[in-house]
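Retro notes - structure team

What went well: the batch runner handled both jobs without manual restarts.
What didn't: labels got mixed up in the shared folder, which is why I'm recording both outputs here explicitly, each with its sequence directly above its C-alpha cells.

Job 1
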Amino acid sequence: MFTIKQLIGKFLTKKASTTTSPEIAISASTNEPYVQKFTTEPYNFKTITVDELFQQDAALWDLYTNEKDGFLIKNFLSEEEVDKIMENFNKALNDNPAHTSVGFTYPPIFAEFSSKLRNASNEEKEIEVKKYFEKTGHFNDNFSNMYNVDVRTRMEKLFRGIAGGREINVAETADGKGNYPFATFRYLLPDKGLMTVHCGNYFGKTFGEFYKDLAQKVAVKNQMSYFIMLNEPEQGGELTLFNFRWKDGQTKVDNMEDNEIIQPDGSKMYVEDNPNIIKDKIKPKKGDMILFQGGNIWHRVETVRGSKPRITLGGFIGVSIDKTKIYYWS
C-alpha cells in the first residue's frame, strides 16, 4: 500500500516496469500456456495541479495509449464549490435516482439503462429510451443552475487543454436522439457501499445494449475514467489499482463478484489471495479529480467505513473511431 505522499515522490518520473514470475495456467482446449503478467512497480500515477496538467497537452491520448496511467488532480474544484453542489444534493435525492444494494446513482448509469432494455419489447425500449434521454438532457443543460457550479464547462476546458487539439463532445446516440449524461453522481452507503473489482473493458463486454450504440462512434476499448470527490468517507472508499491489465477474454461470474477473475483459458485468479498482486490505494480529498486508464487497469472502490457516505461526480472518456474527437459520458 502506498500513501499519497509516497506516490508524489514515486511518480515524478516514469520508470520502466519489471515483472514478477508470471502466473501460468495451461489451456485445456489448446494446451497452450496463458500468462498473466504483473508489474512490480506501482502504476505511473502522478499527483498534479490543473495548471501543471495543462502543460501536457496530449495527456488524454497518452492515457488512451497506456503511455500514462493516471493523475490525481488536486483541487479541481474548490471546497467552496463542492459545498455549493452538496447544498443542492437533495435535488438528486428527490428525482428518482437509480438505487442499488450499495447506494445509488443519478442520473441512472449505463448499467441501469442496459438492464431495462435487455428483456424489453421494441415498444418498451422506445419508451425507456425516450424517458432516459429526456432526463439526461435536462441534467446536462441545467446542472449549473441546479447545483450553482458550472462543472461541465470546467471539465470541458480541462479535457480540451489535454486532448492534443481534438474536439471535445458529450457522447450522443448514433441516431442523434439524445446525449448521454456528461457525468453522474455516485453515492456509496456508509459501512456498505463499494464498487467491486472491474475495468472499463469488462463493462464493454457486459452491458451490450448500451455499448453497441456508443461503439458506433467511440472506440470504447481502453476508455478512460474520471471522478471528482465531493464527500469523503471517514474510512475506506479508496480507489484500489491492481497491478495487472485487461486481457481479451477475461470475465467474472457476475458484476458483484469481488475476488475471482476468470482468465481467457478458463483458469481463475483471485485478487485477494494471489501473492503477485499489489494493491495501490489512492485516496482523493474533497474537490480532487481522479483521471486514469480505467478501461485497461483492473480496479475497485473499497468498502466505505464509518458514518459518512462516499459521494463522487464522474464518468468516462473515449476517443472517436476516427481518432479526431474526444467523447465523454456516464
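Job 2
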Amino acid sequence: MNILLANDDGVFAPGLRALRQELTHLGKVTVVAPMQEQSGVGHSISILEPLVVKAVDDADGSPLGWAVEGSPADCVKLAVYQLLDQPPDLIVSGINAGANAGINVLYSGTVAAAIEGSFFGITSIAVSLEFAEHFDYPKAARTAVDVIRKILANRPPKGSLFNVNLPSHVRGEPRGIKVVPMGMGRYGEGFEKRLDPRGRTYFWMTYAPPYNLEGPETDVTALTENYVTVTPLQFDMTKHEALPGMSDWNLTLPHDEP
C-alpha cells in the first residue's frame, strides 16, 4: 500500500514523525507537508504565490519526502498531481497537536488535507490528539494506526473521508472507539484584550476545553469522556432537503419579470 502523509503542523512536527513510523507497518509512506506550521488555515490554497518545494531527509539521512511552502491542501494537491509517481492508496493527515472536533473541523488544516485527498477519490483520514501539557505522540500513533487498520478492514468505498480524534494520555487508556457525528455547538472561544509596549490594542484568541456539554452525543462529548472518536465526513455542503421547496420561490431576474 502506498500512503501519502500530510499535516498542518509542519514537516518537522513530532506528531507527523511518530505517525510516519507506525504507518510503515501498513505500507510505503511518503511525506508531503508544509514547511511551516499552518494551523487554522482551513482549506486555503495558494493561487497568487508559487509553491516552493524542497526534498527533506529523515533523522537517519534516508529520504523523508517533500516540504512545501504552502497550505496542507496545497501539499496534497501537489503530491497527487506532480510529486508522486502514482496516486496513493491512502492519505493520512496528522497527528495534529490538539483535537479537531466539533466546528473546529471547519477551520482545521489537518482535516482540509484529508478532504483534499477525498476530492481525488482516495480514502483519507485525519488524525488529531487532544491537547495536553505534554503529548505522547508515539503512543497516540500506535492507537491511530490501530484505528486506521480497523477502518480499512471494513473496506470503505474509495474516496471515503474520516476524522479521528484521540483523547490525551493524561486521561488514561481510552475507553474504546465511538463512531459519532460532528458536534455543531460553539464552545471555548473568546478573546483577551491586551496592550502592546507601544500602547496599541490587540486581541489574542483564547480557548477553553468543553465541559458538561448537554445534548446528543458528538465527537466533542465522546472525546471528553475518554473515547477515541471516528466521524465520517463529506464535503458536499448542499442542503439537499431545501432544494425542492426553493424551486417554488419564483426567483427571477428583472428582465424575466412580466
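One thing worth noting from job 2: The two ends are 62 Å apart (CA to CA).
We'll revisit the folder naming next retro.
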